[in-house]
Design goal:
The chain is mainly beta. It has one domain: Immunoglobulins (Immunoglobulin-like), CATH 2.60.40.10. It has no helices and 11 strands. The strands form 2 sheets. Strands 1, 2, 4, 5, 6, 9, 10 and 11 form an 8-stranded mixed sheet that branches. A 3-stranded antiparallel sheet has the order 3-8-7, with no helix packed on it. Strand 1 and strand 2 form a beta hairpin. It is globular and about 55 Å long.
């Protein structure tokens, strides 16, 4: 997406981890999906966790949900759900009934065997207060057949 940023996270011991970051904007009260995709997920039973804040080098920080690749082993709230992964590369996190307090940084960690092999993806979530409002169709201005949705509200 347009909000993709790649960066390196380095510690004082000069260890660096490559991370991808994306920004997601959601509307309060609705479901938001935080993306996390990796070829490793489609390869079979791989541990995945999602946490709040900046990622650490070896594990999820402030873990929200964790799976062993077959089933969810830990979840802090029923509002957090992982995408069903039937032979796909998707490890995205859905947050149901989002609220302003959900805004912030999240990270997805796909835990692979060996030191420093884990894949980490960071998402910056922004929740806005607003409503989805239908824009009336005007056949004189556009050739589209459906009404468009737009987000009305502020940051």
């Amino acid at each position: 997406g347009g909000g993709d940023i790649s960066y390196y996270i380095c510690t004082w011991k000069s260890s660096c981890v490559f991370a991808d970051m994306e920004t997601v904007v959601g509307v309060s009260g609705r479901k938001v999906m935080l993306p996390c995709h990796s070829w490793a997920v489609s390869q079979g039973k791989v541990e995945i966790c999602w946490g709040r804040g900046e990622p650490s080098l070896f594990t999820c920080h402030n873990t929200l949900i964790a799976t062993d690749g077959a089933q969810v082993k830990f979840r802090t709230s029923h509002r957090y759900m992982l995408s069903p992964r039937a032979s796909s590369d998707d490890a995205s996190l859905s947050i149901y009934k989002s609220r302003a307090s959900d805004s912030g940084f999240y990270h997805c960690r796909i835990q692979l065997p060996g030191l420093f092999n884990d894949q980490t993806f960071t998402v910056h979530l922004i929740i806005i207060n607003g409503t989805l409002k239908k824009i009336p169709f005007n056949k004189n201005k556009t050739k589209q057949n459906k009404t468009e949705n737009s987000i009305q509200g502020g940051l």
